[in-house]
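> forwarded from #structure-qc
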């Protein structure tokens, strides 16, 4: 069993990415990892949240989830990011979190983190891969090691077969269309496994 420390860092407005983060936690724990599930800080005005029932419900459901900090990133051997697609990009809340890690980056503390990303979008071709690439661009600057799922397990095909990172389509009611639970768990295990190899090779 690994002794990998994994941070699952998410942003979610409608609950999808929170659920994916929890599945990732389960998968990583099955692989023996120590896991922290963390949200990024909300930046939207309270009035916008109040005007949207689903958003309000997610804020309430995640009120006890700790907000991710630089200390969490420093602590983690591996990080899984889960983010909704926003105009084919990551949400500004996650970008702000990444941008706040300049101090860690400047001190070489983001190097060799093993990372992967997951996403959701309303349309089957709504920009999922572009969202993952926006995340991975920053990860390359971090010197992180991207452990994308590729096609490393047949379970990924049933989840839409996105090799960049597990992605799910969300319908008009905010419900997930594909069953991605197993793919998320596989991705989490793979990220933890690769982090374990890196950690052992570095000792
Ligand atoms: C401002 C905004 C931009 C969005 N952009 C896209 C998009 O480019 N493509 C798409 O398919 N869905 C888009 N969506 C839908 C979201 O991706 C979808 O609601 C989200 O993935 C659900 O995840 P969550 O429940 O974790 O918030 C957008 C939603 C918002 C609010």
């Amino acid at each position: 069993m690994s002794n990998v420390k994994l941070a699952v860092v998410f942003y979610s407005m409608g609950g999808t990415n929170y659920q994916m983060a929890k599945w990732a936690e389960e998968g990583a724990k099955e692989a023996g990892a120590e896991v922290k599930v963390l949200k990024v800080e909300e930046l939207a005005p309270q009035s916008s949240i109040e005007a949207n029932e689903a958003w309000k419900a997610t804020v309430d459901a995640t009120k006890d989830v700790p907000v991710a900090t630089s200390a969490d990133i420093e602590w983690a051997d591996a990080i899984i990011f889960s983010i909704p697609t926003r105009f084919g990009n990551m949400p500004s809340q996650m970008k702000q979190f990444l941008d706040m890690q300049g101090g860690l980056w400047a001190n070489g503390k983001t190097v060799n983190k093993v990372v992967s990303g997951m996403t959701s979008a309303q349309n089957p071709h709504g920009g999922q891969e572009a969202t993952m690439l926006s995340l991975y661009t920053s990860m390359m600057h971090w010197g992180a090691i991207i452990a994308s799922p590729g096609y490393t397990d047949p379970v990924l095909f049933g989840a839409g077969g996105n090799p960049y990172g597990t992605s799910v389509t969300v319908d008009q009611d905010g419900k997930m269309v594909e069953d991605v639970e197993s793919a998320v768990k596989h991705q989490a295990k793979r990220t933890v496994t690769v982090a374990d190899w890196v950690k052992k090779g570095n000792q």
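QC bot note: The pocket of flavin mononucleotide is lined by residues 12-17, 84-88, 120-123, 126-127, 170, 174 (CB under 6 Å). The two ends are 16 Å apart (CA to CA).
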